[in-house]
Amino acid sequence: MVCEKDPLVQKITDLYDQISTLDSLKPSKDVNMLFTQLVLTCMPPTHIDVTKLCKKVQQMRSKLIRLCGEAEGLLETHFSTILASYDNPLHHLNIFPYYTNYLKLSQLEFNILTKHCSNVPNKVAFVGSGPLPLTSIVLASFHLKTTSFHNYDIDPSAKSKALRLVSSDPDLSRRMFFHTTDIMDVTNGLKEYDVVFLAALVGMDKDEKVRVVEHLAKYMNPGAVLMLRSAHGARGFLYPVVDPCDLRGFQVLSIFHPTDEVINSVIIARKFPMPKHCSAEHPVGPLKLPNKCFDIDMLNPLLNHVNLMEELDIEDQLS
Ligand SMILES: C[S@@+](CC[C@H](N)C(=O)[O-])C[C@H]1O[C@@H](n2cnc3c(N)ncnc32)[C@H](O)[C@@H]1O
């Protein structure tokens, strides 16, 4: 059990106390300084397992994740507005302080996707694209140059801000579409996608995340791929952690925990082909994984790549 006496937890708690008393989380010198300190504190590999926090620290973590999510949204809105003032916004994306992080994260996600998918996806959904849909923009611009991207966001202002960024680009304006909706209200439309990306901030705690994943398991096309963002070690104080066991209805193919400045872990999973005895109303229950899946995680929390397909030969068991 990790409690508030742990030196790293004490440092994070101190930063939480300062952040939670700020008047506003809009970008400013103080906000930028505190969040930079927080990220640098949580980034290094550590043995901290956020699923084993005492109640008080777990409560602080839940609140901190929400504050980080709010600040991230405000930061993206701020820079989306500035970018919209340029004639060609997409030529100036590097003014966003975390642009190189997105370049690296998208490269990582593309590498993992191509490792498990032989065909180039025709249609991709990005859930939680926001006012600055950098993942879709980077993937569409550099990696998936013939794929169409459908971006979903619950925030009504996200669509208009995002459209202003891509409308000046003749290629992306034809391949990127934006929908204002809670993803929980999208049902049969999810069947159209070969790949669904789920942003780290959709589902801000375990219950919400599991509800979204179960919704996707119910409506995604059998065999379609789900790319999720999670967190590992102390990075779990910045973002929700997705546990492979939360992914009912999917076979987990691989989990990658970056150790550089890319904060999010990447999980790739595939929706099970629909077994004869199941239907959309009753998605397949949890795959009875050998407990080796759990051992891998528990044995070495510093392990940064778990390829479940090699480790567990799931594919053989399913064929
Ligand atoms: C701040 S963005 C981060 C994504 C980032 N721009 C990217 O390209 O990876 C996360 C977005 O998720 C959206 N969101 C949260 N819950 C959602 C839901 N249930 N359905 C759709 N969008 C949601 C928020 O409105 C927010 O704009």
Automatic annotation (TrEMBL):
Keyword list, A-Z: S-adenosyl-L-methionine, Transferase
GO biological process: nicotianamine biosynthetic process
Pfam families: NAS (PF03059)
Top-level taxon of the source organism: Eukaryota
Species of origin: Gossypium davidsonii (Davidson's cotton)
Function: Synthesizes nicotianamine, a polyamine which serves as a sensor for the physiological iron status within the plant, and/or might be involved in the transport of iron.
This protein's name: Nicotianamine synthase
Its EC number(s): 2.5.1.43
Statement: the UniProt record of this protein carries the keyword S-adenosyl-L-methionine: yes
Enzyme class: transferase
Gene Ontology molecular-function annotations: nicotianamine synthase activity
Matching SUPFAM superfamilies: S-adenosyl-L-methionine-dependent methyltransferases
InterPro entries: Nicotian_synth (IPR004298), SAM-dependent_MTases_sf (IPR029063)
Family: Belongs to the nicotianamine synthase (NAS)-like family.
Keyword GTP-binding set for record: no
Reactions performed catalytically: 3 S-adenosyl-L-methionine = nicotianamine + 3 S-methyl-5'-thioadenosine + 3 H(+)
Segments passing through the bilayer: none
